[in-house]
Design goal:
Layout (H helix, E strand, L loop, with lengths): L48 H6 L6 H11 L3 H6 L2 H8 L11 E4 L8 E5 L3 E5 L6 E4 H16 L6 H16 L14 H12 E2 L2 E2 L7 E2 L3 H8 L11 E9 L11 E8 L2 E9 L19 H9 L9 E5 L2 E7 L3 E3 L7 H19 L8 H26 L1
Antiparallel strand pairs: 1-4, 2-3, 2-13, 5-6, 7-8, 8-9, 9-10, 10-12, 11-12
Helix pairs in contact: 5-6, 5-11, 6-10, 6-11
Length: 394
């Protein structure tokens, strides 16, 4: 059966958060109260290896070394690998230097964290809520724009960074998406899932190899995970076929434990991922409220997705850890680097537009001119800071 391509924008943040969200409670910034853009002098901390190491206390020294080695490969990888340090760093800046209110933030909205999802309908949107939660809207916007600059090498006055800034600002000020993704770019999930299963599964077992990045679970973790599904009503229709550990060695969640579950549901195979949850990046910085508890995923999805599927992604706690459970076959990365330039630009500006709509209310009516004047130079400063930190630590 053909799936509907959902092209609607994500919900506005004012209607998307839980009652605890500060989007509706924080005072909006008046349009005549915009501070000057950030400068290097606003930052007081050093982004050195010990500082970054301290934001991942869950990792062993050996695992952090693996994460670090992948992170310093280039400036964009370095930036996207340490969301907690990013928010901790910005959190030292006086609130008076930062316009906008607190809202439900994407947390880590860099270009690679947008992609295609199949959640009852197929749509393009934010695909990673690991670091999401309440934070100053300016911090979330700067993370996106600095990420674009570091990924594509353009300052805010040229190229894709300039275009992304314009789409973001236009979407903030209008409350509507400046750019929507081209429906023709939507992938075939049926084809992609068939390929994924062929690559990673042999019959009813996972293929354990360096190519699949799948390895056998240690006995303790295996026993712990096996004891959980029988008590989980949301998996009552699933038959467990196999378990494996998945080695994720890049990005913010690099080297945090992940377990893949091969299950059968309604006569079809699915791969469920159990992803270790740690303190979201936004909570390392300034925030008045926390999005947590059993409704966390639903709150975040409502803020950034056009539809919120029932029980698709959910948090569970067992064996002393909290895990995010989600279907690997329900998401396909955008693959920006492999797209033609016009398609790459379309998806990037669609991501900027979705973020702008979600942030709209939190900017408190700030004019497009003033918003651009603060965000553009500030994003350049943030990008330059992380470039310099990588160079110093490499």
């Amino acid at each position: 059966m053909a799936l509907t391509i959902a092209m609607s924008a994500c919900g506005s943040s004012g209607d998307s958060a839980s009652d605890e969200s500060s989007a509706s409670s924080a005072a909006s910034v008046a349009s005549d109260a915009t501070p000057a853009p950030l400068t290097a002098a606003d930052f007081s901390e050093t982004l050195d290896q010990p500082t970054l190491r301290a934001t991942f206390p869950e990792l062993s020294d050996a695992d952090f070394t693996i994460k670090w080695t992948a992170a310093i490969d280039d400036a964009f990888s370095f930036f996207r690998s340490f969301p907690p340090a990013y928010y901790q760093d910005l959190g030292t800046i006086p609130a008076a230097r930062v316009p906008g209110a607190e809202t439900v933030c994407a947390g880590d909205p860099h270009p690679d964290n947008f992609g295609w999802l199949n959640e009852g309908s197929v749509f393009f949107g934010l695909n990673d809520f690991d670091d999401s939660g309440d934070c100053p809207v300016a911090f979330d916007a700067l993370r996106f724009l600095a990420g674009v600059e570091l990924d594509f090498g353009d300052g805010y006055t040229k190229g894709l960074t300039q275009d992304a800034l314009a789409s973001y600002v236009n979407s903030v000020t209008s409350g509507k998406p400046d750019t929507v993704v081209d429906a023709s770019l939507a992938p075939s999930f049926k084809k992609a899932n068939k390929s994924t299963l062929a690559d990673d599964v042999d019959g009813t077992t996972f293929i354990l190899s360096s190519d699949t990045k799948l390895t056998a679970l240690d006995a303790t973790t295996r026993a712990t995970v096996l004891a959980w599904p029988p008590t989980e009503p949301r998996l009552a229709d699933a038959t467990l076929l196999d378990l494996a550990a998945y080695d994720h060695d890049s990005g913010g969640s690099a080297e945090l434990p992940r377990v893949w579950m091969l299950v059968e549901r309604a006569g079809a195979q699915d791969i469920l991922e159990l992803k270790t949850e740690v303190e979201p990046g936004v909570e390392w910085g300034r925030h008045a409220h926390v999005v947590e508890g059993p409704t966390r995923q639903a709150v975040l999805e409502k803020a950034y997705w056009p539809t919120v599927p029932a029980d698709d992604s959910f948090d569970v706690t067992f064996g002393g850890s909290t895990w995010l459970v989600r279907s690997r076959l329900a998401r396909i990365d955008s693959g920006l680097d492999s797209l033609k330039s016009k398609d790459q630009k379309n998806e990037l500006l669609a991501a900027a537009s979705q973020l702008g709509v979600a942030h709209s209310a939190a900017w408190g009516g700030l004019s497009a001119k003033k918003l651009t004047a603060w965000l553009g130079p500030s994003a350049d400063v943030v990008a330059a800071r992380w470039k310099a930190a990588r160079k110093a630590d490499n």
